[in-house]
Amino acid sequence: MGCITKHYLNENSVLGVWKIEEDINTLLQLAELDNEDKKRFRGFASNSRRLEFLSVRALLAELLGKDARIVYNKNNKPFLKDGSRFISITHSHKLTAILTSTTEKVGIDLEYMSSNISSFAFKFLNRKEKITRENDLRKYHLYIHWCAKESLYKICDKEGINFRKNITIEPFELKESGEINGFVKTDRINESFDLWYSKYDNYAIVWTKKDYGNK
Asked: Which site from 84, 163, 187, 194 is most exposed, i.e. has the minimal number of CB atoms within 10 Å?
């Protein structure tokens, strides 16, 4: 299947989604690995993890060209080696997504909606957040909250953030896709963010981007 969408959010930002249907050998041909990539690839014990890794590189090549390279900081946050863009990466089940921007910090998360998320929702929801009582919509609503908080966690560099205590998603009317608002408040962060959500098959996907200018 490969790249199923390449969506330009504006002139500086692009979002790509890859559906993993290839085998490892096919993906190896699509993703040209450098020595560091090859070392990481050999370190994965499971085929599923190898497929995820290769799909990220194949999608990155589709979005930015085969010379684009990913490196990681001490918190395992990805960066482009040449520093030309901000980048955020996510994968779940058979989908991989990448969001990049030349001017805005970004965060993206997607999840395959398979688990009984209601059983652990208390770990990431707080009292200000409202979930629909309609049973057929409840799972999707919860996953949007989860993905939104993951996206905000990523855009804020993953440091010292508790999903329930530090991130709040404002109540919103659930649709197939739409825009929502979130807040991150810690000892060092007090920021509001716009987020966008959508549904693809049985996946929930949420992304956020913010231009900090010279801040």
From this structure: 187
Provide the 8-state DSSP code for 207: E
* Pick from 63, 83, 58: nearest CA to 8: 63
Query: What is the extent of the structural domain holding 191?
Result: 109-210
Q: Which of 19, 30, 75 is nearest to 201 (CA)?
A: 19
Indicate if the pLDDT at residue 75 is higher than 90: no
215 pLDDT above the threshold of 70 = no
Cα dihedral 182, 5, 16, 202 sign: positive
How many domains are there within the chain?
2
**80 and 125 assigned to the same domain:** no
Indicate whether this model's pTM tops 0.90.
yes
DSSP strands (E only) in 58-189: 70-72, 78-80, 86-92, 95-101, 105-112, 167-169, 178-185
Among 62, 79, 103, the domain boundary falls at 103
65: left (phi over 0), alpha (psi -120 to 50) or beta: left
For the chain, helix (H) and strand (E) counts, in that order, are: 5, 11
Specify the residue for token string 């996953």. 143
Burial of 13-45, coded b for 16+ CB within 10 Å and e otherwise, reads bbbbbbbbebeeeebbebbeeeeebeeebeeee
